[in-house]
Amino acid sequence: MLAAAALRPATSLAAFSPSPSTSRSPPPPALLSFPPRPHHRFPLSATAQEGASTSSAASATPIDEARLAQFAADWQAVRAEKDQGRILELPVLRANSGGLILRFNSLQGFVPNPLLSPAHWCKDPKRPIQDVTKDLVGSSISVKVVEANEEERKLVFSEKDASWSTHSSQVKIGEIYDGIVGSVFHYGAFVHLRFPDGNYHLTGLVHISEVSWDLVQDVRDFLNEGDTVKVIAVNVDLEKSRIALSIRQLEEDPLLETLDKVIPLEADQSPNVGTTSPPSEDDLLPGLDGICNELLQEDGITDVQFGRRALEKRVVSQDLELWLSSVPAKDNQFKLLARAGRQVQEVYLTTSLDQEGIKKAVQRVLGRVP
């Protein structure tokens, strides 16, 4: 869990001093006395010291009581802001290596660096985030409350959540964005999206399968932190606050070009009359025969034939994959492309379904076939 804090305003040491009757004599001159080692835990509020000394409660002043009452009221207020999901404009008091410290009335809370908007870092991707956050001291930023735990004295804000609430509705599936690559992991890369105002407000994920048409075994072979890229939005999940992006879909599938160059198809050729004879069942890609038999069980699909075969120059996937052609069905015939390793096989469906209907039928079949 990310550390968080709501800081305690400075309190007079006199309020915590022992009474004269309980004070002790100083140590003999021959002994060395060292101050206690300070704790590195960040105090959240004045109430964090409540009960630390039995004498402090006895010596509480009306000012202390008023301050404690204010803290309690502010904790209640910040919990209400969290429950209502409001966006707050709060001043930045300080910056440390982990993030920013903001003020909410008498309380102080924390914005961890990972919860800051990418707009700050993307202004100069090569600059350390600690230097970027120092420049924000004295300004105000828009945040939402993500944790308000009075008992544990944890108050955490997120600028990313506020940015999502403000800008997510502007992201449309199919839109193309300029982006800057942020974190890169084995499963994909996070890309910060540039909006029309010139700022990078939101971040999406380019899954490893959407990085390139080539077989990607390590995303770092293709993308590195700070790279500038173009991406297309392929899905927006408002409930989970996620954006799925693709780099691959901005490029033409090299499979189609490869087929046309390796096995040219004349206009008067039928699917089975290419430069190669139709493959036998033994020659089919493993698993393709079972998929085709299942396709024939779908309403609206009356026939399945095999067309041209080819070898690609690049390995896209070792597993059998089925791709839908972007060309609409013509004369009740629709083309699929089966590919595994370097092998490519055209599959022609005779169907009364439209492109969307064929897509759903294929998805159902792939869900049934192991």
Walk me through the structure.
The protein has 3 domains: 41-164, OB fold (Dihydrolipoamide Acetyltransferase, E2P) (Beta Barrel); 171-250, Nucleic acid-binding proteins (OB fold (Dihydrolipoamide Acetyltransferase, E2P), Beta Barrel), CATH 2.40.50; 254-368, no CATH class. The longest helix has 23 residues, at 62-84. The chain is built from 8 helices and 14 strands. By secondary structure, it is of the alpha+beta class. It has helices at residues 54-58, 62-84, 118-122, 129-134, 159-167, 254-262, 288-295, 355-368, and strands spanning 88-96, 99-104, 107-112, 140-149, 154-158, 176-185, 188-194, 200-207, 228-237, 242-246, 301-311, 317-324, 333-341, 343-351. The chain is elongated, with a radius of gyration of 32 Å.
